[in-house]
Amino acid sequence: MNAFLSWPIEGEWPYLWIDATYLKERDGGRIVSTATIVAVGVNTDGRREVLGVATGPSEAEVFWKGFLRSLADRGLRGVKLVVADDHKGLRAAAAKVFAAPISAAAWGC
């Protein structure tokens, strides 16, 4: 899993689908809800790949920002359209991480 989460992302990835779901997990003898997010990209050749997966306590902006930063640090570039629900934390994080801010018109719901 670590190899998957650290492989370099090469080339341009203009389309990015991001979504989260909540899963139950054990934490110190308690059952807690944990956000699990997945990013799927489509490159300029039309190839679709899962680019990243992460888990965290919530969908707060700081969580999204860390996840998107990890993708950018691995080489994700050329994002022109993000398809996601209209989560304020995700929108704010994407605007901060990607070189060109993603306009509201570019967000798909």
From TrEMBL:
Matches recorded under InterPro entries: Transposase_mutator
Source organism superkingdom: Bacteria
GO molecular function, one term: DNA binding
UniProt keyword annotations, A-Z: DNA recombination, DNA-binding, Transposable element, Transposition
A GO biological-process term: DNA transposition
Similarity comment: family membership: Belongs to the transposase mutator family.
Job description of the protein: Required for the transposition of the insertion element.
Protein name per its UniProtKB record: Mutator family transposase
